[in-house]
Amino acid sequence: MIGTFQAVVVFLLAFLPGASYTYAFERVVGPYGVRLGDRLLRFLVVSAVFHTLFLWGEVKIYRAWVESGALVSGGVPARDLWAAAGVYLLIPISAGLLIGNGTRHEWRVITFIFGANPQPTAWEYVWTQGKSVMVRARLKSGCWVAGVYGTFEDVGSSYSSAFGEAQDVYLAKTLKIDPVTGKYVDMVDGVPVCRNPPSGLLVRWDEIEYLEAQVM
Predict the structure, then answer these.
(1) Whole-structure pTM over 0.85, yes or no?
(2) Which residues have a Cβ under 8 Å from the Cβ of 141 and sit 6 or more positions away?
(3) Quick check: bond before 197 cis, omega within 30?
(4) Helices 78-104/4-29 angle, 10° precision
(5) pLDDT-based confidence at 139, cuts 50/70/90?
């Protein structure tokens, strides 16, 4: 009969590839389906795929280390254990990073296999393109605001909430705009000018009546 400790080990070994892959994937494209049920299902499916792909190797290791009693008796060299653990983690993590980058940059092979739009809502889709986005929004109060969503050396990165959280967005830089008419105050070669010194803007979706997003 499998003991409690053994059951925990079996559970971790079964789900760890899926968890590692999901963590790496979401590091690139953001968290999708953050509900517990979504995560567990994803861990299970991805882990099943990896176990299927590497079943031959897993069976070989099981027979050589577990069935033979070498693991219990200390007959397996520590370097082999470290190597096996490293491969067990690195393959799913590498796959997650690769597919995450392919999804974010819309590689044809990745989008053909996994779909072009994995984001659950349009909100996540706008902010996960890996490009700067010029934003102009009319608030429900009637005031117009504008800014740039992106990463900048002088002020850092913008941020948007993930799926399942209250929808809000932080724009690392704001643009000069007339709060009444919604027209840009200052432009150079047709491009709106950022405020100087730079200032950020935090807006919640329930405060927005209309939002215009233009990829730069």
Answers:
(1) no
(2) 207
(3) yes
(4) 30
(5) very high
Q: What is the pLDDT of residues 23-81, one digit of tens each?
A: 888 777 765 555 656 667 777 888 888 888 888 888 888 888 878 888 778 888 888 88
**Burial of 47: CB neighbours in 10 Å, binned 0-12, 13-18, 19+:** buried
CA–CA gap between residue 113 and residue 209 (Å, rounded): 36
The tokens describing 102, both together, are: 């392919």
Lookup result for tokens 């932080």: 170
Cα gap 15→44, rounded to integer Å: 6
Residue 96 in tokens: 């997650």
* Cα(163)–Cα(120) distance, integer angstroms: 7
The residue assigned the tokens 């069935």 is 67
Contact 130, 56 (CB under 8 A): no
Determine the Cα–Cα distance for residues 79 and 72; give it in Å rounded to an integer: 16
- What is the structure's pLDDT at 1? 43
Domains, the chain, ranges and CATH? 4-114 (no CATH), 122-215 (2.30.30)
